[in-house]
Amino acid sequence: MSNGRKVAIGVGALIVVLVGTWLFQVAQAAMDAKKAGLLDDVATEKYQVGRENNLKAIQASLLLSAESEGKLPDAGQWMDQALIRLKTSDLTEAEAKDKLRVPGRGGLDYGYAVNDKLAGKPLDVKAEAETVLVFESRDASWNAHGDPDKDAATGGKGVTVSGKVVPVGR
């Protein structure tokens, strides 16, 4: 075998190894992205960041209300109380109301509900830390309330008293 042919075979083998290594790395990166949910279709359980931010903003406003009033707002007034605390110097009333709407469910409905177990009661933040405070509900009316295990929207999320966003419902 000539030297030129040996070099050509060596270069060909090197190219095959390099391309194979590159393809393996690309496949590994794609699998990592899939595990992280980066390749999921938005329609299938991809959770929108705005929804999580809204839940956390509502949770913070209700904790402020409980701190100033000595208890959480009653079930029939919780959104009214949350709205007062969501309106700030940098948010108009309309923008604050948008925080009380679940993104992607239409512009007129609200879609959040307060947990009946906590509404109108003094809040023991430490004891109730893992209890769902507000959740995405099938009831999209103003001041909706109910049980996060029974009344949650399909694939919905809730926010605990401690501020952790968790899946709710069955």
What's the layout of helices and strands?
Layout: H1 3-35, H2 49-69, H3 78-86, H4 93-99, E1 112-115, E2 132-136, E3 145-146, E4 157-160, E5 165-167
Parallel strand pairs: 1-3
Antiparallel strand pairs: 1-2, 2-4, 4-5
Report on the structure:
- This protein is an alpha+beta fold.
- It contains four helices and five strands.
- The protein has helices at 3-35, 49-69, 78-86, 93-99, and strands at 112-115, 132-136, 145-146, 157-160, 165-167.
- A five-stranded mixed β-sheet has the order 3-1-2-4-5, with helices on one face.
- A hairpin with a 4-residue loop joins strand 4 (157-160) and strand 5 (165-167).
- Helix 2 (49-69) packs across helix 3 (78-86).
- It is elongated, with a radius of gyration of 25 Å.
- The chain starts with a helix and ends with a strand.
Write a concise synopsis of the structure shown.
The chain is α+β, with helices and mostly antiparallel strands and 170 residues long.
Q: Helix coverage percent of residues?
A: 40-55%
Poorly predicted residue ranges: 40-46
**Oligomeric state as shown:** single chain
- CA radius of gyration: 25 Å
What's the mean pLDDT score? Answer: 84
Instruction: Characterize the overall form.
Output: elongated
Total helix count?
Answer: 4
Biggest sheet, spatial arrangement of strands: 3-1-2-4-5
Largest sheet: 5 strands, mixed
User: In angstroms, what separates the terminal alpha carbons?
Assistant: 71 Å
Class computed from helices, strands and strand pairing: alpha+beta
Query: How many strands?
Result: 5
- Percent of residues in β-strands: 5-15%
List SSEs in N-to-C order.
HHHHEEEEE
